[in-house]
C-alpha cells in the first residue's frame, strides 16, 4: 500500500543528505533508464546507418522543443502535488494531476497538425537528401507519441511530488526496457517464433519504439493509481476538467515549459547549423550530446529532487530548511560531474566505442572524422558541465517554490543571445544581421564546430551563474502555488 498523500517525502530528517538521496537516487536512476534508452536508440542507429544517427538528434530535438511547453506543465504538476500534499490538500493535488493529462490531449492535437509539415521543415534545414528523409521519418513517427509522452510526465507528478520516487523509477525502468527491446526489433527487423516476420523499419522503428514505451509508462501509472494513495483519495474522481486549477497550472507551468522550449529550440537550431557544416560534424555533435546526457543523470535527479523537496518545505511553511537542501544537492552534483568530466578529458575512447562498434557501418573517412572531432567535443562538455549543475539544481530549487518566470526569461536570453546568434554568424555570416563578416560564414568543417561549441559553452556557463544569483537572492522563499494567501511563515522569512 502507498502512503497517505500528506506524509513527508521521506522518513529522514528534513534538509539532510539522507533525505536528499532518498528522493534523488530513484529519480536519477529513473532519468537514467530513459537516457539509456535514448543512447540505445542512437547506438542502434549508428550501426544501422550513419545518416540515421545524424538525423536522429535534430529531429528528436525539434519534437522535444515543440513538446516542451506541454512537458513544462506536466513537470509543474509535481510542484503542485508537493505543496498541496504538504499543506494537507490531497484533493487539490489530484486535480492538478488530471489537468496535466488534459494538457497532454492538447499536445496530441498540436502534433497531429505538424505531421504533414515535417517535409518542408526539414528540407529547409538543408542537411542533404539522405539525412533529410531520415529526419522526416523519425519526426513524424515521434509526433504520434506526443499524447502518452506528455501524459506520463503529468502522471509521474502524483508520485514524485509526494516523494514516492521509487514508483517513478519502477515505471521508467519498465518503459526503458520496452524501448530498448522494441528498438532492436523494429530498427533491424527479426523473425519471431511462429514464423512471424518483422520488417526492418530503420529510424522509423526507433521512433515507434520510443512512442510505445511512453504508452507502457502511462498504462502502469493508471494501474498504480487504482491502489494505495490513489485509491484512498479517489483520484479518478478528480479526472474532470477543472478550469480554475488549469489556469493556476498554466500560469506556473507555462514559464517552465517555455524555459525548456527556449533551451531545446536553441539546441535544435544549433544542431541544424552544425549540420550545415557537414554530416560528419553533425554525427560527432550528436554523439557528444548523447554521452553528455548519459553522464549528467545524477545532476538531473538532484535537480528534480530539489524541486520536490523545496515544494514540500514551502507547503509546510519552512523555506529555511529548503535553503540547505539546494546547496547540498549542488555540492553532490558538482562532485559527480568532476568525475565524469575527467573521464571525458582523459579516457573518451571507450565511450565513443559504444557508438562505433566494429566500425563496419562507417566509411574510412567517416570513421576518421568522428575520431578526430568527438574527443575534442567531449572536452567542451567537461568544461561546461559543472556550471550546468548549478543551472539544473538551483534552477530546480527555485521552480519548486513556484519561481518559474525568471528561469524562463534568463534561459531564453542566454540560449539565443550567447549560443544561437553567434553560431549563426559563424556558420552563415554576419551579413544576415547587417554586420560585417569578420570571418563569420567562412568557417567550415571542424573550425566551424569549434566555434559553435565555444558558443554553446558560453551559454551554459551564463545560465549557471544566473540561476545561482537567483537562488542566493532568496525571492523564491516567499512564493507558493497554493490557493489563497501565501504561508505566513514563508512570507515573514521572505520579508
From TrEMBL:
Record bears the keyword Oxidoreductase: no
Record-annotated membrane-spanning stretches: 61-82, 94-118, 138-160, 167-188, 200-224, 256-275, 287-310, 322-347, 367-393, 405-428, 448-469
Keyword Ribosomal protein attached: no
GO BP terms, alphabetized: monoatomic ion transport
Record keywords: Antiport, Cell membrane, Ion transport, Membrane, Transmembrane, Transmembrane helix, Transport
Organism name: Alienimonas californiensis
Domain of life assignment: Bacteria
Intracellular or extracellular location(s): Cell membrane
Membrane topology of this protein: Multi-pass membrane protein
GO cellular component terms, A-Z: plasma membrane
Molecular function per GO: antiporter activity; xenobiotic transmembrane transporter activity
InterPro entries: MATE_fam, MATE_MdtK, MdtK-like
Name of the protein in its database record: Multidrug-efflux transporter
